[in-house]
Design a protein that fits this description.
Radius of gyration: 20 Å
Strand order of the largest sheet: 5-4-3-9-10-13-11-12
Largest sheet: 8 strands, mixed
Number of strands: 13
Number of domains: 2
CATH topology of the largest domain: Rossmann fold
Helix content: 25-40%
Structural class: alpha/beta
Order of helices and strands: HHHHEEHHEHEHEEEEHEHHEHHEEE
Strand content: 15-25%
Amino acid sequence: MPPPDPWAESLLRRLPFFRDEELLELIPKLAVCRPPTPWPRGMVERAIAQSGSGMQLRQQIWERFAGNRELPPSLVNWHHGSQLRLNMGSEISHSLFVLGAFDPNEFAFLETFLQPGMVFVDGGAHEGVYSLFAALRTAPGGRVIAFEPSDRERSAWKANMELNHCQAMLIDAALGQADGEATLIVAQGQRSGHNTLGSFVWEGVREARRERVTLRSLDRVADELGLTRLDLLKLDIEGAETAALRGAARVLREFRPVLLLEVSPRSLAAQGSSREELLALLDESGYELFSFDYWTGELISGHSNPGGENLVARPRPITAGDSARVT
């Protein structure tokens, strides 16, 4: 059990008497940021089940603001001295404020993998959590290229990058198999991570509006930008991962980037693909798969992710006569 926290316990008792404005001022002081080290899923679940007064306090504050998009964003500390602007009540703010970590094992991996001078592509950049971290880790001399089709999320991305004086390129488009157009279904703000080109597949996600958006293939963009390397490609695009990888055939073949991608059977099915098709595509492209171990948070060989968690795909060594390619 966590040690007693008298200050948090005192605030918990007085919480009903605080005005919203007073609580918003407290959020930066209450927020915690775990270091970018593995935090296995088993330990996260135990921490939630045995939460101390500090986590209970943050949870109750978050619940008070859940779904309220009219309040001003709050600042919380993020890795390497950076800060994030969060709208209390969104899913991402729950991870970052209540738990003090967002995708902890993924960021632990990025902490060791990303180096100055590397090129990082952020597919489905959302509010910029990954883009910001990558910009900090690849400086000086690195490059971050982000794709985000939603007007609302691009605005939040820009605010977070400007807040931290970080340089990155933001492309107003979704990644796909070929250049074109599509309809993006934008989720209500508290579930904004579920914006999709397919359909919502998780309970409780509601539509806010629809936007006509641009589709770009990564191969075409890489040509236009004159890229000569790509070190890591992150894809969290709610089931469009298969299409995006087919649109990155040359990039995968020539640059051999490491991939960090969501593999959600439900989301893939909603866009006419499947987990089996995506894994077969990665194998044909010469990649081997790794998942984050439930008990250690470390990468282990294989693709066991029954909950649809993120996987890491590393290029297999190229051997003479190797003809693996994406078609």
